[in-house]
Design goal:
Number of strands of chain B: 6
Number of domains of chain A: 1
Helix content of chain A: 10-25%
CATH class of chain A: Alpha Beta
Distance between the termini of chain B: 46 Å
CATH superfamily of chain A: Cytidine Deaminase, domain 2
Number of domains of chain B: 1
CATH architecture of chain A: 3-Layer(aba) Sandwich
Number of strands of chain A: 8
Bound molecules: zinc ion
Shape of chain B: globular
Largest sheet of chain A: 7 strands, mixed, barrel
Order of helices and strands of chain B: EEHHEEEE
CATH topology of chain A: Cytidine Deaminase, domain 2
CATH superfamily of chain B: Beta-grasp domain
Oligomer: heterodimer
Strand content of chain B: 25-35%
């Protein structure tokens, strides 16, 4: 899994950050839509989602299987696929928590945006190792504009 | 009973990139056991160390969540389609 990179436009990164600011001090979440091929992985669109953890939205987020299926359908309609997920860490660093790791799926890119005092800070991407033991950082390659769509 | 299991994208690296797998099973439990026998690396992503299906692994039989049927004891009929659907969860440290 080492050496992977995620291409994403600055505009989409700003939308993720804006979502995190909007829901602050609660966590935001959403789907990353794009392509994954031999040539690499690219995010081309987002599906912002409601955080279903109404009991603990400041430090937890949840995307229900129904929302996952809805995001997959949107991706399919755009001839894309769900390549990962984003969420915010209000007043916490942009690295995965132990709770994140325990609940993670392999293969997906997990973008985390740190929002400190309503200001977006670091935005980083992570991927779970095959053996589930840890997350590895995934480089974010900024592209000026989304290539297609 | 011949049934088809739809594999979600994040698990396809462990099923030789297959999007679906056909196998013989009389219950959901049997189908998942058979699937993880065929593709051993799936096991740690579907089950926790105590052998329970992970909380974020959802199984549908013909679009019905098995939680509303009989869980992993849900009986299967010829031609049933099982879908493994992720839910996504996480958060900050505490
Ligand atoms: Zn998190």
């Amino acid at each position: 899994m080492s050496g992977t990179a995620l291409r994403i436009s600055d505009a989409l990164v700003r939308r993720i950050q804006a979502h995190g600011v909007e829901t602050y001090p609660h966590e935001c979440c959403g789907a990353l839509l794009g392509n994954d091929s031999e040539a690499g992985r690219e995010t081309l669109d987002l599906v912002p989602l409601a955080n279903r953890r109404n009991d603990s939205p400041r430090n937890r987020f949840e995307v229900t299987p129904e929302d996952v299926r809805m995001a997959e359908k949107k991706a399919k309609d755009l001839k894309l696929e769900v390549i990962g997920w984003y969420h915010s860490h209000p007043d916490a660093p942009a690295r995965p928590s132990e709770f994140d790791r325990e609940h993670a799926w392999p293969w997906y890119s997990y973008i985390i945006v740190s929002v400190q005092q309503r200001e977006p800070r670091d935005t980083k991407s992570w991927r779970l190792r095959d053996d589930r033991a840890a997350y590895d950082p995934e480089a974010i390659e900024s592209v000026a504009q989304s290539a297609s769509i | 009973m011949a049934v088809k299991v739809i594999i979600p994208t994040p698990l396809r690296p462990y099923t030789s990139k297959k999007e679906s797998v056909e196998l013989q099973a009389a219950t959901v439990s049997e189908a998942l056991a058979s699937l993880t026998t065929l593709f051993g690396e799936l096991k740690k992503h579907l089950y926790s160390d105590d052998g329970k299906l992970r909380s974020f692994v959802n199984v549908y039989v013909n679009d019905e969540d098995i939680r509303y049927l009989r869980g992993d004891q849900t009986p299967l009929r010829e031609g049933d389609i099982l879908s493994i659907v992720p839910s996504i969860a996480g958060g900050t440290q505490n």
